[in-house]
């Protein structure tokens, strides 16, 4: 499938989670077997070109796309979790959200020093979560210089923020607006 055919599988839900927002819902893509497989194949080619040795994905939809890319490439997957979800000692980072703060954690033993980790997630908006994940993974010894997304919302400038942190950003598709 082409990128445009995959893009056509993403549902737009107006006024969610707030009035004026056009929510880009990937669940319609995920439930479409051929579309999801094609999406993963595109992302895997991009990750291979980036020299991925490990794939990391942020909770929750980054787990879906990232783990599928890792399995497709026969690479390991590192889940970047919300706090309190890992049963071992973790390292974490607190970061700012549009309205408040959040935290991400990883098992530091899941990262080999110097491993080239490519981040995979469903969507980049403001980039706050991806920047925090990049900093967290780098702090654990990973080389993080590529991040891949199914969707970019360029009007929110998240990809620009990541590029400013030395991370190459690619997305299968983009949508204007928020």
UniProtKB/TrEMBL annotation:
Record domain Phosphoribosyltransferase: where? 53-144
Instruction: Indicate where this protein is primarily found.
Output: cytoplasm
Reactions catalysed, as given in the entry: AMP + diphosphate = 5-phospho-alpha-D-ribose 1-diphosphate + adenine
Q: Name one GO molecular function term.
A: AMP binding
Q: Which Pfam families match?
A: Pribosyltran
UniProt GO cellular component terms: cytoplasm
Q: What is its EC number?
A: 2.4.2.7
Is Protein biosynthesis among this UniProt entry's keywords?
no
User: Assembly and partners?
Assistant: Homodimer.
Q: What does this protein do?
A: Catalyzes a salvage reaction resulting in the formation of AMP, that is energically less costly than de novo synthesis.
Protein name per Swiss-Prot or TrEMBL: Adenine phosphoribosyltransferase
Q: Quick one: which gene encodes this?
A: apt
């Amino acid at each position: 499938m082409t990128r445009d055919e995959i893009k056509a599988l993403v549902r737009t839900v107006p006024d969610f989670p707030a009035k004026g927002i056009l929510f880009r819902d990937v669940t319609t893509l995920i439930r479409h077997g051929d579309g999801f497989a094609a999406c993963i194949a595109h992302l895997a080619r991009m990750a291979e070109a980036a020299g991925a040795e490990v794939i990391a994905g942020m909770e929750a939809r980054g787990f879906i796309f990232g783990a599928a890319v890792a399995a497709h490439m026969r690479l390991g997957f590192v889940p970047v979790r919300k706090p309190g979800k890992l049963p071992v000692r973790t390292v974490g980072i607190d970061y700012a959200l549009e309205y408040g703060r959040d935290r991400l954690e990883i098992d530091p033993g899941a990262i080999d020093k110097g491993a080239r980790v490519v981040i995979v997630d469903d969507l980049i908006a403001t980039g706050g979560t991806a920047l925090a994940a990049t900093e967290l993974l780098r702090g654990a010894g990973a080389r993080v210089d590529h991040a891949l997304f199914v969707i970019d919302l360029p009007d929110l400038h998240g990809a620009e923020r990541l590029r400013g942190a030395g991370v190459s950003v690619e997305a299968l598709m983009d949508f204007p607006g928020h």
